[in-house]
UniProtKB/TrEMBL annotation:
<feature type="domain" description="Calponin-homology (CH)">
    <location>
        <begin position="25"/>
        <end position="134"/>
    </location>
</feature>
<dbReference type="InterPro" id="IPR050606">
    <property type="entry name" value="Calponin-like"/>
</dbReference>
<dbReference type="Pfam" id="PF00402">
    <property type="entry name" value="Calponin"/>
</dbReference>
<dbReference type="Pfam" id="PF00307">
    <property type="entry name" value="CH"/>
</dbReference>
<dbReference type="InterPro" id="IPR003096">
    <property type="entry name" value="SM22_calponin"/>
</dbReference>
<dbReference type="InterPro" id="IPR000557">
    <property type="entry name" value="Calponin_repeat"/>
</dbReference>
<protein>
    <recommendedName>
        <fullName>Transgelin</fullName>
    </recommendedName>
</protein>
<dbReference type="InterPro" id="IPR001715">
    <property type="entry name" value="CH_dom"/>
</dbReference>
<comment type="similarity">
    <text>Belongs to the calponin family.</text>
</comment>
<dbReference type="InterPro" id="IPR036872">
    <property type="entry name" value="CH_dom_sf"/>
</dbReference>
Length: 188
């Protein structure tokens, strides 16, 4: 856990401060309130880092959350406080979140939550899961999921587009390479 580590100093401390500065208490509070709505559990919905970490650190609530979104997603939830069992819970949540449609770039690593390394990435993952929950008939949070806007063009339209020279390509009317001598020395 984070309490067993030495305090960071120098570049590591500076990097950790930058990571912690990205954390938004408002978004974290919105995530906790959404989790409370989905799971019907009485949890403290304060958005400060300490509360957010304490509520989610063992992974049991996260596992119950994905089980409420899609029942039976996580088969076994470990209710012990042993480190590797808690990290197993967090990992089970992450794997299920990916199955439910959360992109890999919006997930977090187990240590980001367990060792309190990057709680902002945990918030991002829960927000992404919250957007995907709407696809399973559950209340969603965050911005609405984008809809596919596929366009179909006829063969004639596609061929007409190939004959147009875009203005970004420029024009080379009358240009030649007569004055270019990069790398050449003067010949005598």
């Amino acid at each position: 856990m984070a309490t067993n580590r030495a305090t960071k100093s120098g570049f590591a401390a500076e990097a950790q401060r930058k990571v912690n500065a990205k954390y938004s208490e408002e978004l974290a509070q919105e995530c906790l309130e959404w989790i409370r709505t989905i799971t019907n559990e009485d949890i403290n919905c304060g958005g400060d880092m300490d509360n957010f970490y304490e509520v989610l650190k063992d992974g049991t609530l996260l596992c119950r959350l994905v089980n409420c979104i899609q029942s039976g997603s996580v088969k076994k939830i470990n209710n012990t406080t042993m480190a590797f069992k808690c990290m197993e819970n967090i990992n089970a949540f992450l794997e299920t979140a990916k199955v439910l449609g959360v992109p890999a770039q919006e997930t977090f690593q187990t240590v980001d939550l367990w060792e309190r390394q990057n709680l902002n990435s945990v918030v991002i993952c829960i927000q992404s899961l919250g957007r995907k929950a709407g696809n399973f008939g559950k209340p969603s949070i965050g911005p609405k999921e984008a809809e596919k806007n596929e366009r179909h063009f006829s063969e004639d339209k596609l061929k007409a587009g190939q004959s147009i020279i875009g203005l970004q390509m420029g024009s080379n009317k009358g240009a030649n390479q007569s004055g270019i001598n990069f790398g050449n020395t003067r010949h005598m």
